[in-house]
User: What shape does this take?
Amino acid sequence: MTQQLSVKHLLGIKELTVDDIQQIFATTANFKDVINRPIKKVPSLRDITVANLFFENSTRTRLSFELAEKRLSADIINFSASSSSVSKGETLIDTVNNILAMKVDMVVMRHPKPGAAVFLAKHVKAKIINAGDGTHEHPTQALLDAYSIYEKLGTLNGVKVVIIGDILHSRVALSNVFCLKKLGAEVMVCGPVTLIPRYISELGVLVENNLQKALAWCDVANVLRIQMERQDIKYFPSLREYVMLYGINREILDNLKKDIIVMHPGPINRGVELTSDAADSRQSIILQQVENGVAVRMAVLYLLAGRID
Amino acid sequence: MSSRLILNPKNFEITINRLCFELIENHDDFSQSVIIGLQPRGIYLSNRISSQLRHFLPGKEILTGNLDITFFRDDFRRRENVIVPSATQIDFIIENKKVILVDDVLYTGRTIRAALDAILAFGRPSKVELLTLINRKFSRHVPIEPNYVGKQIDTIMSDKVKVSWQETDGKDEVWLFTKEKEE
Assistant: This one.
């Protein structure tokens, strides 16, 4: 059986079809099997070179991509903006074209500006994987979140997922909304009014400002970090007040009538959006998300590499 | 396209049984041997062989697994489409075991070359053998020969061999399809 992704780059979840996502999931399951073997490496991408361009800080995503590339036997080069010619005034296209001149086939890019990946895909000759572009999309995170729920519950159809926290600044939230909606899940966003984008209900998601009500409704709670670095003005009076209204702890989880699944894309601010006893509880699948992240990224790299001319 | 039946259900059964006896001759009670079927089509043969072996060797454990070689293929990115992998299921240790790779049709040998790579991810077998139901002679791209053969046939590139299984197609049969010469 053979099938092709409908896209040549992974720029966002918005452009993917349901078939694409299902194919990525099927391939992810195979790679998850591979990374749990004694020898975790396969030779599929041995003739491919991948450049990891990180114009913004990242630990988990960069390590996860790097590991995924290495386990597929690709050659890789790493690049971070702080130690490069970008600080000398080079443009994005020039930087990338110079790297591509060294015969690079795929580019994994994180950039602080929304749309940077789309822009790059239009102007350079390489397969682009968006590893987060500003407040726009973070497709591989959404895929691994959705895959983790799918793995735990066996389906996404009709599953009720609430995304809690800083929705306004979160690319994870937007990609998650697109991905979960495509797969038939019901999605709610929950947070202070100031951190919920005004027209988000147009995407077909429910909006709730009361954490208790949101948790009582959901099967899965995906808890996001408050992105202080993206907040140019004060969106809530104090962190203490945020914790009182939106922080999740063991007691809140215990008071619910059911066992909900707790997720977090990382990095966690312990004691803010999640307390340690909630983050480390048996309901939490945070570390499974990280494990699935490598498998999902292997699947994306593998399937897109198949489209290199 | 003309077609010819090269193995009917009766001979199919005789052939499977003969292959089982050849295996027993070399592998005794299978305590040190494992059977690995190659996805996607080889697993029907490996499952059939192991269930017959259990019948001939009552009480003996016949370890059987499935191996998918998609990620080890040498034609990735050289084909039109990406190949969708099947599941690998090997729930035992193959270190120091005799591994019998099983596939339905041996043609270019490239699948087996990839399988030899893939199997190493599960440990170092003491020996690897190859069992195939149909051996298409004179069409090899790599120097690989089977240890156990159901039936040898001489074919050319444009020929096609189709193995049907009771489980999926309702009948155990092997057909050879030959392209008619253009006058």
